[in-house]
């Protein structure tokens, strides 16, 4: 199955594509947008636009732009924005995030769970810096090692040991690059477990509900494989941190 369609199915019940509970998302958005009544937000790798439509719903004088390669996800984002009455304040671009350019800077740039599109956290932040207005904020989410990864964890994630660092090292690298964390959130185990059960469960349920679909068997296989890789591999090893950053 196409990876983009698989991701849409997996996130059907958890549109924030990261292990963050609704209350965590709400608090981070409140902090990220509190510095100005009227602002512009950009989400690089926006998917179905969950972060942006929530921000616009709570900030009536903000405008937003989302960028993603998944055209169907952008269609869903537009539908959600229409239902919430914020569609006139959002622009959605079907584009590679690495190629996106803007004529005006943004007061908030979001890259949560999509740093891989840039080749990692530091190049993602380098791209965000070029799009950020003076005094603006970046909300970025990234993985880190909660503990030394086992071979089972690395195999389950399809990752190398050097792909992530521990939380302290990850934070130190940001500071060296000229960023100051002004807030943040480390996802707890209940958030991780809810996200992973939702991810694999949404796929399994779709396969059960669509047994005649040609993709049903591959979707069920993906659900079972993901659940096994998580429970027998990286559970408790891979962490997730969402930073709110400012430039020095």
From TrEMBL:
Residue span, Methyltransferase type domain: 42-138
Alphabetized Gene3D superfamilies for the sequence: Vaccinia Virus protein VP39 (3.40.50.150)
Keywords: Methyltransferase, Transferase
Gene Ontology BP terms: methylation
GO terms of molecular function: methyltransferase activity
Protein name: Class I SAM-dependent methyltransferase
């Amino acid at each position: 199955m196409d990876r983009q369609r698989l991701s849409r199915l997996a996130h059907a019940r958890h549109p924030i594509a990261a292990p963050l509970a609704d209350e965590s998302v709400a608090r981070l958005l409140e902090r990220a947008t509190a510095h100005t009544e009227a602002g512009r937000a950009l989400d690089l790798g926006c998917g179905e636009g969950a972060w942006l439509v929530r921000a616009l719903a709570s900030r009536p004088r903000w405008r937003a732009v989302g960028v993603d390669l998944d055209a169907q996800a952008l269609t869903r984002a537009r539908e959600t924005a229409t239902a919430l009455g914020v569609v006139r304040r959002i622009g959605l671009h079907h584009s590679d995030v690495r190629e996106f350019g803007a004529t005006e800077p943004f007061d908030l740039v979001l890259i949560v769970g999509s740093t891989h599109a840039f080749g990692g956290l530091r190049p993602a932040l380098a791209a965000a810096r070029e799009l950020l207005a003076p005094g603006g904020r970046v909300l970025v989410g990234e993985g880190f090692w909660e503990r030394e990864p086992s071979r089972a964890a690395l195999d389950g994630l399809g990752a190398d040991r050097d792909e992530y660092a521990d939380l302290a090292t990850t934070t130190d690298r940001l500071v060296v690059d000229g960023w100051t964390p002004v807030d943040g959130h480390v996802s707890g185990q209940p958030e991780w477990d809810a996200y992973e059960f939702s991810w694999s469960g949404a796929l399994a349920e779709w396969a059960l509900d669509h047994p005649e679909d040609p993709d049903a068997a591959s979707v069920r296989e993906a659900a079972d494989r993901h659940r096994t890789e998580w429970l027998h591999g990286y559970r408790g090893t891979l962490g997730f941190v969402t930073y709110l950053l400012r430039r020095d």
